[in-house]
Each structure stands twice: as C-alpha cells, then as structure tokens.
Amino acid sequence: MNLTPVISSDTSSLNIGDFKDMILLDECVSDIKQSLIHRPEIRVFGKTCHQPRDVGFFSDKSVGYKYSRQMMRSQPLTGSLTKLLDTINNMFSSDFNGILVNLYRDGNDSIGDHSDDENILSSQGVVAVSTGATRKFRIRDKQTRKIVKDIAMHHGMIVQMSGEFQKHYTHGIPVEKRVKEPRISFTFRHHTE
C-alpha cells in the first residue's frame, strides 16, 4: 500500500492512503449500524453532556475502551469487522485488537480537538478508515493551538498517525453544516487492558 506523508518529523508522522476493498467496508457499515450507542453521555469539565455522534467499540481481546474517565464496553467483532481488522493489521504489520466506530449522522455531528493518548493504548499508533461523506479532519499543534492542516477525508481514505504524533498534535472533526450525508470512521488501536 502506498501512503503519502502529510506531516512528518524525526519522531512522528501522519500518512494518508486509500483502502481498496469497498465491498468489505460496506459490509462493516451494515453490520455495526444497529450496535452503536446513540449520542452516549460523557463528562467534560465536570458536566455531563451527550457526544454529538453515535459510538461503538468492538474487540474480542479488550474489555472496553476507556476515555474521558468512562468505559465503553466491548462488543464482539462481527465477521466483517474481523476481516477488516486482519486486513489493516496485515497492511501495517501491526497487532491492533480493537475498533472504535464513530457515526457522524451529518455535518452537525462532530468530535472536538483531542489526542488519542490514553494510557491503555500501545505505542503502535492509530489507523483510521473513513466511509461515507467527505469530512474535514483538522490537525492542530498542541502548543500553539494553530491549525496545521485540514484534510478532506473522503470515502475509503486511510489515515495513519504514528510515533509521537499524539504527543505533539490534536485532531478533530469540526461541524460542517453543509454536509447532509453520514460519515463513519473505523479507528484501529491496540488496547492493553
């Protein structure tokens, strides 16, 4: 697989490419849609609010995904998700064992700037595959808070964030009211609990 570097340094990188098996992606979307949690609650700065997206975590090896002091329990991998996980692991010579799925129903759904730097994640980095509507994937420098890059994440696009990328940058999907179609991201990680 050919990946194009977008951000690169001695210690970290963000690379993009295209996933070729669209039939497998369609099967995964079909398998998970009814399993996602609709706008789950989250505590932010001491307040409980609803996440502006639907979320699910799938793994046969991890009990769940812990973020923002909450635990999202694992659901079993479906046949298509297992095949997708195996494909990604083969592509990146990795041993990811969990898939976090986010469904953005339209441009009003979003995720704020954040880093995937939870202690339960291994140092392998994170790989994401996008399906559906094209959405902006915004990268910011953690120190300056300035936008480093806006990447138009299209259907079938792969993003790999490796090395110390999470230490130096944040990423998010901002609100884009003009977007009327859904987008789903499959994010691959290696969980250590």
TrEMBL record:
GO terms for biological process: DNA alkylation repair. One of its GO terms (molecular function) is dioxygenase activity. InterPro entries: AlkB-like, AlkB-like_sf, ALKBH3, Oxoglu/Fe-dep_dioxygenase_dom. Residues 95-192 form the Fe2OG dioxygenase domain. This is Fe2OG dioxygenase domain-containing protein.
